[in-house]
Design a protein that fits this description.
Blueprint: E1 20-24, H1 27-34, H2 52-59, E2 66-70, E3 73-80, E4 96-102, H3 112-126, E5 131-137, H4 141-149, E6 153-160, E7 163-171, H5 176-185
Parallel strand pairs: 4-5
Antiparallel strand pairs: 1-2, 2-3, 3-4, 5-7, 6-7
Length: 187
């Protein structure tokens, strides 16, 4: 079992994008993700309890769930495609939709920039798209500030199940890898 609780966020204080690896989610990592629990108000993001069905969902190739790790430490997960969409949003423009979650003990620790940068780089490279799209609950200002700092622009707002959402888009430009790296270095 990979237990992210054993790794201190301080150990990762100098985390570099290049250290982060994405790989298709394993059963072990899926079980770990399903045990994550966030403090309010982020408890809204708590995954379902561990079950055969929940594990199968995270391993379903349709959703393209990936583990985001440094060494053997599970930092986050990412999905690419339909899993990153929320009913009610306008997703007609071609883009790679990204869903993601950072392990609770690593949120608010300054690790978001390298983690999200690694995920976006992976998505744009491997999904052969020139645009990345994130849908985020409007109350999650911490994530919105990070995504804005990384070059995502607010393009639409909608409500689903009484929750306001923003759709944020980042178009790939020449030298995008350098642009993302500069964004990570920004305070």
């Amino acid at each position: 079992m990979v237990d992210t609780a054993l790794v201190s966020p301080n150990h990762l204080a100098n985390l570099k994008v290049e250290q982060i690896e994405l790989s298709p989610m394993s059963t072990e990592d899926a079980k770990g993700v399903l045990r994550w629990r966030y403090d309010p108000p982020f408890d809204w993001y708590n995954p379902p309890a561990e079950s055969i069905e929940a594990i199968a969902n995270l391993l379903n190739p349709r959703w393209q769930f990936h583990s985001v790790k440094v060494d053997s430490t599970l930092l986050a997960y990412a999905s690419f495609g339909a899993d990153g969409r929320v009913p009610g949003g306008d997703y007609r423009e071609a883009a790679v939709d990204i869903g993601l979650g950072v392990a609770p003990q690593f949120t608010g620790q300054g690790l978001g920039s390298p983690i999200v940068t690694a995920i976006v780089r992976f998505a744009l490279r491997n999904q052969k798209s020139s645009m990345a799209r994130l849908t985020v609950a409007r109350f999650n200002q911490r994530a919105i500030r990070l995504y804005t700092r990384l070059g995502f622009k607010h393009e639409q707002e909608f409500v689903h199940a009484q929750m306001p959402y923003w759709v944020m888009v980042r178009r790939q430009f020449e030298n995008d890898e350098q642009d993302l790296s500069r964004s990570v270095a920004s305070p």
